[in-house]
Automatic annotation (TrEMBL):
It comes from the Bacteria. This is DMT family protein. Pfam families: DMT_6. Coiled coil: none annotated. The chain crosses the membrane at residues 6-24, 36-59, 79-96, 103-120. InterPro entries: DUF486 (IPR007437). It comes from Flavipsychrobacter stenotrophus. Keywords: Membrane, Transmembrane, Transmembrane helix.
Length: 123
């Protein structure tokens, strides 16, 4: 069960990360965001990124094998990267509808999934 808790925390962390890193690209489309300067956008994004760390640090702390978790360091990073891409793809499809996923994006994501398999495979 520890492994699933780690994965769930990383999913939540990545949702906040994606909004912090890319959500601000939509601010200008809203009345409240039309006149925001770069410094204001950075502060808002930094505030969102705080919550990324609120979930990411406990996920890695609890998920790391040396702390009694289920994953070694490479596996933790691999899980995090795969989740990041899944969250990013969903975010893009929902909030940036004008951005279309193309075959090469899907192929690249498939290769990352294959990399996850290779990393977790016990040879």
């Amino acid at each position: 069960m520890k492994g699933w808790k780690t994965i769930a925390l990383l999913v939540v962390s990545n949702i906040f990360m994606t909004f912090a890193w890319y959500g601000h690209l939509k601010f200008k489309q809203y009345e409240w965001g039309k006149n925001l300067g770069l410094f204001s956008i950075i502060l808002i994004s930094w505030g969102m990124a705080f919550f990324e760390y609120v979930f990411q640090v406990p996920a890695n702390e609890g998920g790391f094998k040396d702390n009694g978790g289920s994953f070694n360091l490479v596996e933790l990073k691999t899980i995090q990267e795969a989740i990041t891409l899944m969250v990013f793809m969903i975010f893009t499809l929902v909030f940036f509808k004008e951005q279309k996923l193309q075959w090469n994006h899907l192929l690249g994501f498939g290769l990352i999934v294959a990399a996850v398999y290779v990393i977790f495979k016990k040879w």
